[in-house]
Amino acid sequence: MSLNKQPRDTYRPQSADLEVGRASAAGMYNVYQGGLGLVWADWDAAQKVMRAGRGEVPIAARENARFAARAAAWAARAYGIEQVLDIGVSLVEGIQVPTVEEAVRGAVPAARVLACDNNPVVIRHAQAWRGSPDSGYEHVFLGDVRAVEQILSHPELTRRFRRDRPVLVALVAVLHFVAEAEDPVGILTRLGEGLPEGSVLVFSHACAPEADPAAAAMAAGYENASSDLTFRTEPAVAAMLQEAGWEVTDPGVTDVQRWAPPGERYRGEPSPSVRVVGAVATRPRVGGRAESRARAARSERRP
Ligand SMILES: C[S@@+](CC[C@H](N)C(=O)[O-])C[C@H]1O[C@@H](n2cnc3c(N)ncnc32)[C@H](O)[C@@H]1O
């Protein structure tokens, strides 16, 4: 298996991330974890966020990455899934983190693992360094979760994934870069509707109480970056998944430091001032109980 290079004619950088001096979500996340980021502005903006987070941002970032790898590996094995899509693949240069692709391929060696990101520089990095035959991505492509249908119908995905087999989607620490006006519930709903039955979601999201001053200060660090950061409350994150028709499995929506597969225990380094919550959720069978509940919740929301 090899990582195919994206053909030149389909590769169109379309974001302002390439602007010199503009921080990106991926670059800042890399700095939180001890990397250098992509540009100086990543380092600069990341310092602001880390100061506002009272030193806990690196802990939360590390634990989030550990959650992604742990939950994806467990879910792939537990649900017997061999098709994995990692949305928001980010950078791993200069840092020691467990990666989704290595963890999944360690748990299910036959898994085909694809990834996408909306940052073209991140795509170039992943294409160059994360495509090893036995533990890497089979292919990475440019894709924006706000246009989730385009990701699911991307030719590189449709020619590799079978429509009649479930897919494990990792959407980890990405949806907090989607503003309310961009309809995060709609994105999660369309993601579920576009996937085969039996598909599974590994999900995480930055979390804070309403009008929390520290969260506002952290979000301010993203003001000049390529994406804004939107904290949501823990109940709001759980409601988003439910409303979109995803059925959250045990132990529910919980801090990434505490998420463990059913019957197991995990206690990571705590970061009580900087919370990221995670969950594993299944796409219910069409017409199933959770789907009817989700439909009811959606129609209640409509004016
Ligand atoms: C905080 S990093 C999380 C990386 C990885 N999923 C993890 O949890 O370790 C967020 C990643 O999502 C990407 N991203 C942000 N908004 C996105 C969007 N609308 N569509 C796809 N990727 C996005 C960023 O470029 C970045 O690589």
From TrEMBL:
Lineage top rank: taxon: Bacteria
InterPro entries xref list: SAM-dependent_MTases_sf, SAM_dep_MeTrfase_SAV2177_type
Coiled-coil segments on the chain, per record: none
Annotated stretches, region: Disordered: 281-303
Biased composition regions of type Basic and acidic residues, renumbered to the chain: 288-303
Name of the protein described by the UniProt record: S-adenosyl methyltransferase
